[in-house]
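Structure (tokenized):
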């Protein structure tokens, strides 16, 4: 009886703490080959988000004229860089470079700092 109760308490404790581990902010930041592959595909597929994002950011800080000129150029440049980095990460995903599969470009994913 006591052994069954002990197993029940241990099982419930483990089951109740799993959601806490799953929502830990650092848990999803574990860099590995598959995260690098996913990050590469996200950069290739959604890198275009940089163009409207940079237009919006520059417009908020410097006005509409700067957003239409400098913001567009900055967005296209960041989009191109995301595409290059994305292709590199997809091709080299099994290789732990940079050290520990760290992201090359920040923010790690193109939609992390998107401001519509």
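Design, position by position:
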């Amino acid at each position: 009886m006591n052994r069954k109760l002990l197993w029940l308490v241990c099982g419930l404790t483990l089951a109740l703490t799993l959601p806490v581990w799953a929502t830990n902010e650092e848990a999803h930041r574990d860099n590995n080959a598959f995260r690098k592959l996913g990050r590469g595909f996200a950069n290739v597929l959604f890198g275009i988000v940089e163009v409207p994002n940079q237009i919006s950011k520059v417009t908020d800080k410097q006005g509409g004229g700067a957003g239409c000129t400098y913001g567009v150029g900055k967005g296209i440049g960041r989009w191109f860089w995301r595409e290059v980095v994305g292709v590199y990460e997809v091709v080299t995903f099994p290789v732990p470079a940079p050290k520990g599969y760290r992201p090359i470009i920040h923010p790690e994913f193109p939609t992390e700092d998107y401001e519509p």
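Reviewer-requested clarification: The mean pLDDT is 83. The radius of gyration is 21 Å.
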